[in-house]
Amino acid sequence: MAPPARSSQSSSPSQPSGKGEVSDLKSQLRQLAGSRAPGVDDSKRDLFKKVISYMTIGIDVSSLFGEMVMCSATSDVVLKKMCYLYVGNYAKVNPDLALLTINFLQRDCKDEDPMIRGLALRSLSSLRVPNLVEYLVGPLGSGLKDSNSYVRMVAVIGVLKLYHISSATCMDADFPSILKNLMINDCDTQVVANCLSTLQEIWTAEGSNSEEASRERDALLCKPLIYYLLNRIKEFSEWAQCLILELVAKYVPSGNNEIFDIMNLLEDRLQHANGALVLATIKVFLQLTLLMTDVHQQVYERIKAPLLTLVSSGSPEQSYAVLGHLHLLVMRAPMLFSSDYKHFYCQYNEPFYVKKLKLEMLTAIANESNTYEIVTELCEYAANVDVPIARESIRAVGKIALQQYDVNAIVDRLLQFLEMEKDYVTAETLVLVKDLLRKYPQWSHDCIAVVGNISSKNIQEPKAKAALIWMLGEYSQDMQDAPYILESLAENWDDEHSPEVRLHLLTALMKCFFKRPPESQKALGIALAAGVADFHQDVHDRALFYYRLLRYNISIAERVVNPPKQAVSVFADPQSSEIKDRIFDEFNSLSVLYQKPSYMFTDKEHRGPFEFSDELGNLSIEPDVSAQHVEADDEDLLLSTSEKGDVGFPLNGSSYSAPSYDSSKPLSASNTSSDLAILETSVHHQASASLAIDDLLGLGLSTTPAPAPPTLSLNPKAILDPGTFQQKWRQLPVSLSLELNVSPRGVAALTTPQALIMHMQGNSIHCIATGGQSPNFKFFFFAQKSEELSNFLVECIISTSSSKAQMKIKADDQNSSQAFSALFVTALSKFGML
User: Fold this and answer.
1) For residues 757 and 768, is the Cβ–Cβ distance under 8 A?
2) pLDDT in tens, 767-783
């Protein structure tokens, strides 16, 4: 069959048929530019569609700029929209071409049709060419006074675009003052919302350079404006309501009655179908009641039902967003959600990210009353065909076991996982069993009996193999084949590519050698020789260290590598309390979903006025190590969790506690020529041991004592009203976070919390608010410097059930935070709390 004639072939509007296609379009547009024939607008539409489609797929049609502008002389709104789209796209790339559009855009800004006026003004402000800002001021001023609300709405956003192009031009034209007046007096709610959004952004940007701008920004939080917006809130769109609620969350009411009035006014917003609006309302409730502990707990109860409703309805994406915020609340108040654990069971048709978050929530709310049901459900997931969910469920069971007191049934379930003969189940379980044995060594006999039947050849994952090797070394005296399994692994050293496994193998063979020397000597020699020749620096250094240690003294080597161990009481939290508090302050934002504060994933110019430093090390003030006084009977606590937070060396989001030293004993490191002599000295003098090892590793630490911290004097008659305290608490960042152990005497003393308040007042630390009930007490303290008006704010949460005290300190003078924390802890110690 003959091919059809060329004229009958139809070319796609998105694919030019030849090199002359753009030239043809140009000639056709030129012919239609001045035509007034009937149906000319339809012809223009077809040509405009072709131009836009070419532009969309990346074909350069900028040569048609003049013809497109000439064809824009029409009253057809559709043609206007396409022409504005074309102009806006090429004006950014070719500013010179943008000059051709000024006349017709300014003319359209005066058109009789308000839709065309608005579209033209939007396009004119979207050109974003610095040389053309002078042509934008006049149309924007006219647009702000336009009788049509759509034009005014576009003009308000145009002011913000002008500010980002040339802030000086925007401020000289006094547009912020015009917007402020328009926000208060305009009858259209969308115009009011746009004014509010624009003013917030302008004053926030200007606030860092101008004190007047800072006052204007704070004026947005005045009571008349807040009440004006709240009284009209139902008239606004959902987006605008969220914007208003975000502003209300920063407002500091004058008293409790005002707080209750605002909450009663917004009560019905909790029942809204829009999830964003519900979350914004919840943020207002949480922020307003932050210092009212009892009411704050009631807010948790009130918001629970709306959140659970949003989770069960809507798309998976909405469920995940709501679950993320619910997870944040669960972490702060797990007891309030413990009875609703069934809402967090996984559904078969849910995506992985939702299931994973639900498993984390089940882990957080598990307690003595619901552990059995939750663990039973998680064990069902462990046999799931979805391997990632099976892994996560096993980890969840392990986390629950590590936070419960009665773990008999949980340990039995974990040991049953080892009999499922699934590689990934065995691997995850081995890692958890290792952590369980570190916390519950009394279960070693039952666990080792099962673990001993597992062949190392069947374990391929590095973390699982490392856990198995750790158990072989730690309990080699109870496992008959442990030396021979380790010897087999040492002989196949080159087949193991994971540095983590090699490091564990070296340590395990050292431990096994001290317990069963004849059977382990050969394997240890093989491992040390291979380790010293290893290309990985950590493996090489550890093997060399063990080799020199053994050459020096066997008994000392045993004390270093295999000392008596205490059970781990608490495992490190991957997130510091400062990070968690910052995420809570940024409730209803991406920070909750990312589980990190905004300063970690936003550019500096988009951060708030109280952003943290880029480096987490700046979150806390580094303490003076040499000035820490430690009593002789407290030496066993130097590395315990009770010191966590007292000396804060934050590193990668967690707090690292360095051992404290008695400053009354001079520390000196002798400059000997032998590494072994340094090691021998370190055995007899514990205070110089750390310095000796640091010197051995070439850290070159100075032994000169650091200067003592300056003394801090507090004002015994300090005064601070609750409103100021609440405002400062919201604005100031956390300077220090402390977590201390509470003594039995301190637990008994809290039967009358007023005694603690009176005692702290005697130390010039005053209590401004209290809350909670046994076993959880919350106190808010404040203190002031005697020589200047500088405040210290403290939130102290004491749990008599766990014998823990958690404190957050905020200060006007960040440099004095460490000195004040020392005074605060000393005052608690005198009361017998610590």
Assistant:
1) no
2) 888 877 667 788 889 99
